[in-house]
Amino acid sequence: LPPPHPPLLIRVAGAQQLPPAGGVPVPLPGPPADTTSAPVTIAWTIEIPAAPIVSPVITADRVIVAYLPGIVAGFDRADGRLLWRAELEARQPLATDGTLVFVQSGEAIHALHTSDGSLAWRTSSGTLTAPLVVKEGWIVAPTEGKLTAWRSSDGSTVWSVVAPPQHEPAAIAGDVLYVPVVGGHLAAGALPDGLTIGASGT
């Protein structure tokens, strides 16, 4: 027979460990949970017409939400007022640099001004296979068989390279781009130059 699962530890008010099948609770280390704190104050609540498609993104003064059937809307962060809306169906999580919000819709990346939702630029991207990465003036995202970098300010293409499949977003640290690829590989290279990634991910 397979070994039994280890006991599940549950921390509750009063700091006790409850055995999964009865028995005497055992005190857990550390101070007991504070159950006298005041409830969290909700600053504001609004209704949106339909379910969100992806998580919202937050800037200094905006909360930006994408919801069904294909709307991206900007709300005032202070009081939740609707400030603008654009008819775009987000196919990947939203991304922002604080000034622009980037929406992958159809086979293009749309950059909207966070202030009023107006279109700053639009560029053809193909169908993305992982979320956009936006950092320090760069946008990087994969399509089937390709990895491309754009300037976030105007959407111009900086480089585009042949790459193996990628289903998770890359990461940027300084001038280095880290790319996780299908098959258990991680490639790293100079962001300004683009990465040469073989079919095996190397």
What features would you describe in this structure?
This protein is 0% helix and 39% strand. The protein is mostly beta strands. The strands form five sheets. A four-stranded antiparallel sheet has the order 3-4-5-6, with no helix packed on it. A four-stranded antiparallel sheet has the order 7-8-9-10, with no helix packed on it. A four-stranded antiparallel sheet has the order 11-12-13-14, with no helix packed on it. Strand 4 (62-67) and strand 5 form a beta hairpin.
Itemize the secondary structure elements and their pairings:
Blueprint: E1 16-17, E2 26-27, E3 57-58, E4 62-67, E5 71-76, E6 82-86, E7 95-96, E8 100-105, E9 108-113, E10 119-124, E11 133-135, E12 138-143, E13 146-151, E14 157-162, E15 171-173, E16 176-181, E17 185-190
Antiparallel strand pairs: 1-2, 3-4, 4-5, 5-6, 7-8, 8-9, 9-10, 11-12, 12-13, 13-14, 15-16, 16-17
What keyword list fits this structure?
202 residues; mainly beta; 4-stranded antiparallel sheet; globular; disordered N terminus
Helix content percent band: under 10%
Write out the strand line-up for the largest beta sheet, numbering strands in chain order. Answer: 3-4-5-6
The number of distinct β-strands equals 17
In terms of DSSP E residues, the strand content is: 35-45%
| Global geometry | globular
Class derived from helix and strand content: mainly beta
Give, in order, the helices and strands.
EEEEEEEEEEEEEEEEE
Radius of gyration: 23 Å
Note the total helix count.
0
**What kind of sheet is the major sheet?**
4 strands, antiparallel
Summarize model confidence as the mean pLDDT.
83
Which stretches of 5+ consecutive residues score pLDDT under 50? 1-19, 198-202
Ends apart, CA distance between termini: 42 Å
